[in-house]
Design a protein that fits this description.
There is one protein chain. With 436 residues, the chain is of the alpha/beta class. The protein folds into 4 domains: 111 residues, 3-Layer(aba) Sandwich (Rossmann fold), CATH 3.40.50.12160; 92 residues, Transcription Regulator spoIIAA, CATH 3.30.750.210; 117 residues, Transcription Regulator spoIIAA (2-Layer Sandwich), CATH 3.30.750.200; 58 residues, Beta Barrel (OB fold (Dihydrolipoamide Acetyltransferase, E2P)). It is built from 13 helices and 17 strands. Helix 12 packs parallel to helix 13. The chain starts with 5 loop residues before the first strand and ends in a 6-residue tail after the last strand. It binds iron/sulfur cluster (SF4). The site of iron/sulfur cluster has 9 residues, from helix 6.
């Protein structure tokens, strides 16, 4: 079989998988392989799969079969959480020449070099990180892997078990490269950011890292992809409040607004601790965007628990609430728990929660009408030139009249009108964040 010359990388799932896909992409390029056009023919297809829900596997299978129908002579490598959870199933998929678990991702590119390209002797230097984030305005930077918590609904700790924090100097150098490449915003991501530094016994690691990154020349925006409320303290909030590079948007997964459900979920905080963290953020920052994840219909969630959950979410007044109907995940503690709800009831609760999300999100948008806000212009709002769209520092989607020359620039807009789940704005001027 002829040596591979072109490849495609397909990432499913979380921001960590997106970062790893880019890292693998750059590794294959270092071997001299060329990335094929999206959806174009390729000799090698590398899938970084997801398995957070039962449907994660079917999406990965679908992408492999779809690719192989169009490229019957190609070879496929599957890695990621589905390869970790269902290795034999993966190995049986058409075209799959190798499955690599999450801990084996560093072996993929050398294996391609030896086994598929016939390279022997010393391999070219392979990247330890990424130098660009292809096709994205904001760049994700993976800083850690693994989680030691065991939330009852979550399979991740058994698929990404080892806590691994990247060296701080490597992360800082990567962010510098991404900024030099034109990325204005960096989102630090991981499986559980709160464990950054845990494997080096450095409890302050995340604060030290944020402090170092805050002063980086040219970096306009920095944020964490998510943070658990029990990991928020005054010092961390002061850090966020102390430098304009930190955008006032915090993703705080709540999962349930009832202490009874939180206990059964084995989450590490209660409603009082959540309320406290939110109060601290709101006391130190000007109306920050607080977004969250909520599971509805968790086993044993009574009608009263659900009502309490809705009341708590309304009290927290989230800017955005991602609502997930509970679905059984094989291998989690919740799978064996009593009190699984009928699908119709879970769907009913999802509808109610989604309506609450719409009301809260609209209230948050409305509260910002008339304000002048910084927006990172991402792309055209539609196909017609003349209108761009972007996200404000408080995660508000804004469309505004402007030419393409302002793409990937941070501009100040006056928010003039609501427009469905977006806002419409008008250009005031272009800004550069102080000290950046
Ligand atoms: S904190 Fe809980 S939900 Fe998050 S990855 Fe760990 S076990 Fe999963």
């Amino acid at each position: 079989m002829a040596a591979a010359r072109t490849f495609r990388v397909h990432e499913l799932g979380c921001k960590v998988n997106q970062w790893e896909g880019q890292w693998l992409r750059e590794g294959l390029e270092a071997l001299g392989l060329e990335e094929a056009a999206a959806d174009g023919p390729a000799d090698l297809f590398l899938v970084n799969s997801c398995s957070v829900t039962e449907s994660g596997g079917s999406k990965s299978r679908h992408s492999v079969r779809h690719f192989m129908r169009r490229n019957p002579a190609a070879r496929v490598i599957v890695t990621g959480c589905y390869a970790e959870s269902d290795r034999d199933e993966v190995a049986a998929l058409p075209g799959v020449v190798r499955a690599f678990g999450n801990q084996e991702k560093g072996e993929i590119v050398p294996w391609v070099a030896r086994a598929l390209l016939g390279m022997d002797g010393e391999l070219p230097e392979l990247p330890r990180g990424i130098s660009r984030f292809a096709g994205h305005t904001r760049a994700f930077v993976k800083i850690q892997d693994g989680c030691r918590d065991h939330c009852a609904f979550c399979i991740i700790p058994s698929l990404r078990s080892r806590i691994e924090s990247r060296p701080v100097d490597e992360i800082v150098a990567e962010v510098e490269t991404l900024v030099a490449r034109g990325h204005k915003e960096v989102v630090l991501t991981g499986v559980h950011l709160g464990y950054f530094g845990w494997d080096r016994d450095e409890p302050r690691a995340i604060k030290d890292l944020l402090g170092r990154l805050a002063g980086l020349p040219g970096l306009q925006r920095l944020k964490l992809s998510s943070i658990e409320v029990h990991e928020i303290d005054e010092e961390l909030v002061d850090l966020f409040a102390g430098h304009p590079v930190f955008v006032p948007h915090f993703h705080l997964p709540l999962q349930a607004g009832s202490d009874a459900t939180l206990r059964r979920m084995r989450r590490r905080y209660n409603l009082a601790r959540f309320r406290e963290a939110v109060a601290l953020l709101r006391a130190r920052l000007d109306d920050p965007a607080l977004t969250t994840d909520l599971i509805v219909g968790f086993p044993g969630e009574t009608a009263a628990d659900f009502d309490e959950s809705m009341a708590f979410c309304a009290e927290m007044a989230f800017a955005k609430m991602h609502v997930f109907p509970y679905s059984v995940r094989r291998g989690t503690a919740a799978e064996a728990m009593p009190g699984h709800l009928p699908a119709a009831e879970i769907a009913r609760r999802k509808k109610i929660a989604a309506e609450l999300d719409d009301r809260m999100a609209e209230a948050y948008r409305r509260r910002h009408l008339g304000r002048i806000v910084p927006v990172l212009a991402e792309e055209r709002a539609g196909l017609v030139p003349g209108t761009l769209t972007g996200l404000s520092d408080r995660f508000l989607r804004v469309d505004f009249p402007a030419g393409d020359e302002l793409m990937n620039r941070i501009v100040r807009l006056r928010l003039e009108a609501l427009d469905g789940d977006r806002l419409r704005g008008r250009l005031v001027d272009e800004v550069e964040v102080a000290g950046a």
